[in-house]
Amino acid sequence: MLFANTGVVFRPMRTTLSSRPRATGRLALRPFRRRDVDPLIEAVHASVPELGQWLPWVHTRYGRSDAIRFVRDSAAAWVEGRAFDFTIRDPQRADRHLGNISVWHTSRREQAGELGYWIRTDETGNGIATEAACRVLQIAFEELYLHRVTLRIAVGNRASERIAEKVGFTKEGLLRQEVLVKGEWLDHTLYGMLEEEFKENKQKYTELGWIV
Question: Domain for residue 27, yes or no?
Answer without folding.
Answer: yes
